[in-house]
Amino acid sequence: MAATSTPAGYMPGFGNDFETEALPGALPEGQNSPQRCAYGLYAEQLSGTPFTAPSHQNERTWCYRIRPSVRHTGRFSRIPVPYWRTAPAIDPDIQSLGQFRWDPLPLPDAPQDFLDGIRTMTTAGDVNTQVGLAIHAYLATADMQDRFFYSADSELLLVPQEGRLRIDTELGRIDLEPLEIAVLPRGMVFRVTLPDGPARGFICENYGAKFTLPGRGPIGANCLANPRDFRTPEARFEEVDRSCQLVVKWCGEFHATDLPHSPLDVVAWHGNYAPCKYDLRSFSPVGAILFDHPDPSIFTVLTAPSGVEGTANIDFVIFPERWLPAENTFRPPWYHKNIMSEFMGNVHGIYDAKPEGFVPGGMSLHNMMLPHGPDTDAFEKASTEDLKPVKLTDTMSFMFETRFPQHLTPFAAGEAPLQDRYLDCWTGLKKRFDGTPDPW
Ligand SMILES: O=C(O)Cc1cc(O)ccc1O
Ligand SMILES: [Fe+2]
User: Fold this and answer.
1) Which positions does UniProt annotate for homogentisate binding (predicted)?
2) Structural domains present in the chain
3) Is the C-beta atom of 425 inside 6 A of ligand 1?
4) Which of 88, 89, 122, 280 is most buried, by CB atoms within 10 Å?
5) pLDDT tens-digit map of 392-402
6) With a 6 A CB cut-off, is 121 part of the ligand 1 pocket?
7) 296 in contact with ligand 1, CB cutoff 6 A
8) Which-ligand-closest: CA of 295?
9) Nearest Cα to 17, choosing from 221, 232, 291?
10) pLDDT tens digits, residue range 250-304?
């Protein structure tokens, strides 16, 4: 279980209308745009939804900053960020039809900041029509030094696996460690530094509508991810007048501009368009308490809708510690083929369907309509074990699931440590059928 009280520097809630100021009186009272703002600040609105979005979906934040963002941009020139790929990125020579698994990507010895350390594994959909996603690993060994970034293309969901990240955003600071996740909205400027050295993790880049909490249906008002456990940073600014670089990702290209000052200069803000973090240990799982294995959607932390009800552009699902009490039940996942494509990562521990080979830091892809399920050992064990209640402990894997087929990048199909013999994990599933009802 995670700590329940909100730590200093954060505000609790998901999608709340927050207000926060780093200097007293910096937030205008009762209005957004006074004739002159306190401290000589500039008022600026950051719109995360169209102005005309229905009120219950409308997201925007009012920022009161030392300089308006137009002073934090200039002439842009394209720069290479060669391993960060954007959909559509379909390489005719790469076979994406299949089940794939990778060992953890090694951290490099050379200094490499968070941005240069991004390695896209798969892409789906199309950034120009704003559907789909890209899934990346990050391998960071150096701070982003006087370097800032924002993605105009996407919202970023970060899942650390090893090492801590300090994410200084326009709206405040998020300190992130393994077993926590962060959501950085589209357009939010940030810098990542590494308080404890090298860091590795996963990123889901969402081109579509924002992540939100799933409806709980008959589960009711509580459990799964509770809104109060999400944490949004309080306002914090830096007044740094030295040369910096801002990199913007826009329609899959990277553009840099030089600035004479830090863009993290928001002194106060109010609104509901803001970054947040969430401790995965606060997730309260609901599951099978008598028999059978439910669909993994019961473990959905966040969902990014596609516009078609019940069909997500992306579901972010976790497999946390939990009790397995179900009687007369094959307890691991069933064998299946899914219209959604499933990209998984292991943060730590053993994943019950794959006791061997799917290791912490490792990744797998079971693409759209490709069959998969427990490996031979998991099947044999789960079919014959004594079904006492057992607790799965010290385990955390996750799944980025999307309605769209995923395409491997050249990196994922080439340089990355793809396990050539992954399919062998199922070859021991032998024919038992001999016409008698119980050939066991
Ligand atoms: O394939 C997987 O391992 C993920 C998964 C888990 C589960 O419990 C049910 C379905 C499913 O796709
Ligand atoms: Fe699956």
Assistant:
1) 351, 372
2) 15-99+107-280 (2.60.120.10), 283-423 (2.60.120.10)
3) no
4) 122
5) 999 999 999 99
6) no
7) yes
8) 1
9) 232
10) 999 999 999 999 999 999 999 999 999 999 999 999 999 999 999 999 999 999 9
To the query of whether residue 136 is one of the catalytic residues in this protein, the response is no
Q: Catalytic one among 72, 255, 261, 293?
A: 293
Confidence of residue 72 (pLDDT cuts 50, 70, 90): confident
Q: What ligand 1 atom has the least distance to the C-alpha of 353? A: 3
Binding site residue list for homogentisate: 351, 372
